[in-house]
Design a protein that fits this description.
The chain is mainly α. The chain contains three helices and two strands; from the N terminus they run H-E-E-H-H. A two-stranded antiparallel ribbon has the order 1-2. The two termini are 27 Å apart.
């Protein structure tokens, strides 16, 4: 999530599910409640419909590591250094 629009979509989705966001930042959301499986599935569908993806911690860590690896190799955005 990189734009204000993304943050608004995420906040609205959480509000509609009765969840209370503590923090919404680039790629990270912290909520006051535990997310039930039902809420997680609903949130996932809403985000996908808006072009966003709900990722768990393992997927986030893998994504960040992959991004670092590409940057270290000088191939960020498909360019080789």
């Amino acid at each position: 999530m990189v734009s204000l629009r993304c943050k608004i979509v995420v906040k609205d989705a959480l509000d509609n599910l009765g969840l209370h966001p503590i923090m919404i930042d680039m790629g990270i959301v912290e909520i006051a409640e535990e997310l039930s499986e039902s809420q997680r599935e609903k949130l996932k569908k809403v985000l996908l419909f808006s072009g966003l993806e709900l990722m768990d911690d393992k997927k986030i860590d893998a994504h960040r590591e992959n991004k670092k690896r590409h940057y270290r190799n000088g191939s960020l955005f498909g360019r080789n250094a």
